[in-house]
Design a protein that fits this description.
Elements (H helix, E strand, L loop, with lengths): L3 H4 L1 H17 L8 E12 L5 H13 L7 E10 L10 E4 L9 E3 L1 E3 L17 E6 L11 E4 L3 H4 L2 H15 L6 H4 L6 E4 L17 E7 L6 E5 L12 E2 L8 E4 L8 E9 L4 E6 L8 E2 L4 E4 L10 E16 L12 E15 L1 H10 L11 H9 L2
Parallel strand pairs: 1-18, 6-14
Antiparallel strand pairs: 1-2, 2-8, 3-4, 3-9, 5-8, 6-7, 9-10, 11-12, 12-16, 13-14, 13-15, 13-17, 17-18
Helix pairs in contact: 2-5, 2-8
Length: 384
């Protein structure tokens, strides 16, 4: 009999594989000014936990009748310097008292550009990926788009890359103990919470409203900006479905977030050992769905051969940029620093868990849920 943890491997392995895909395609861009990024994220469902480990724990909890993890807030800080960072540097981000952490968060990471990338080449396995899209009861004509694994890297669409990017963000930036091992910073980049052994998570009542100050020994000018309530953490998405299995339509609903500009919805599953299936709410748009939409249906039949399917959702909240010196219309003063604050929310669920729980209770072995070669297939495809 397979253990419940084995039943979850295709979906969880796919998320890790997509995260690796994003890492392979990401190219750091270093501009003349110092660039600072601050991401405030609210995770719920399978996303609420310390990276992928939290997702596994949440899924197992739900499989055995529990509620799993509920809501988790994360903060991701990243400073990119235009030149190599000097040895013996110091850098920190001071947050307002309402965050209930810090107050000084240490920024650490890669000081300089290495001589070699160290990236190894992997031979893609045999197989293919089927891509579907659209919110409807049935699959529209012209679908699916079929891509061979061997040509996947050259044909990845922006929508699939957005899915991969989401997997990358949720797979290694929220944990403190193993964040440094799971997330590799680009050259000339400092970040947090990587390397902060004292970090124990963001409190549930944390608020980012107030003044933020970033100081570094190699920066002549400190970065200073103030956030209002519009740029605070989002509420949880609370993604839900009434579908008991993946054979029919999968209706999805989520909460109306007043500050959400739009939503991305996607789903993924494995058909045997040589076929991956991806579904996107729409193609050619980012975000995929408008902020006023709070329901979508995955067409029937797409995941009929996959007993459990991972569904993911992202809410795009407010974004605001800051710069020094301030620019008047038409001015082109050389910038000393730029900063961008993004507010997002993530959620995820597994469709078909009810049947998996029944199988576990009756002792039935369902090989189609976790094909023996699925993990190896994904590792070979995405180089991990």
């Amino acid at each position: 009999m397979r253990t419940p943890s084995n039943r979850l491997q295709p979906a969880l392995g796919l998320a890790a594989a997509l995260a690796t895909l994003a890492a392979l395609h990401a190219t750091p861009s270093i501009a003349a000014p110092v660039n600072y990024e601050m991401d405030l994220r609210t995770a719920s469902g399978l996303g609420a936990g310390s990276g992928m480990a939290g997702g596994i724990g949440s899924a197992l909890g739900m499989l055995f009748g529990g509620q799993g993890a509920s809501v988790m807030r994360t903060l991701d800080l990243r400073l990119v310097n235009p030149a190599d960072i000097p040895e013996g540097y110091s850098a920190a981000h001071t947050v307002p008292a309402a965050m209930h952490i810090g107050p000084a968060l240490p920024l650490t990471g890669e000081r300089r550009t290495p001589g070699e990338s160290g990236r190894s080449e992997e031979t893609p396995p045999d197989g293919r990926v089927l891509i579907y899209w659209g919110c409807s009861a049935t699959v529209s004509k012209g679908q699916p788009e079929v891509i061979d694994f061997k040509t996947l890297g050259a044909r990845v669409s922006p929508e699939v890359m957005a899915l991969a990017q989401r997997g990358r963000m949720s797979g290694g930036k929220s944990g403190a103990k193993d964040g440094a091992a799971r997330a590799s910073l680009p050259p000339r980049t400092l970040g947090w919470p990587w390397g902060d052994k004292d970090f124990r998570g963001i409190p549930d009542n944390a608020s980012a409203v107030g003044e933020h100050v970033v100081k570094a020994s190699f920066m002549p000018q400190e970065i200073r900006f103030t956030l209002d309530k519009e740029l605070d953490f989002l509420e949880p998405i609370n993604l839900k479905t009434t579908a008991a299995n993946t054979r029919a339509t999968i209706p999805l609903t989520w909460d109306a977030l007043t500050r959400a500009r739009g939503y991305d919805l996607s789903a993924a599953g494995a058909n045997g050992e040589k076929e991956l299936v991806l579904w996107l709410a729409t193609k050619g748009k980012s975000p995929m769905l408008p902020g006023r939409q709070h329901e979508c249906t995955i067409p029937a039949g797409i995941f009929a051969k996959t007993q459990m399917t991972m569904v993911s959702a992202e809410a795009y909240g407010p974004v605001q940029g800051f710069a020094y010196p301030p620019q008047k219309p038409g001015e082109k003063k050389p910038l000393v620093w730029t900063a961008r604050v993004r507010v997002n929310a993530f959620d995820g669920l597994l469709v078909g868990m009810q049947e998996a729980a029944t199988d576990a209770a009756t002792g039935a072995a369902v090989d189609s849920v976790a094909p023996a070669g699925a993990g190896s297939l994904l590792k070979g495809l995405f180089g991990r």
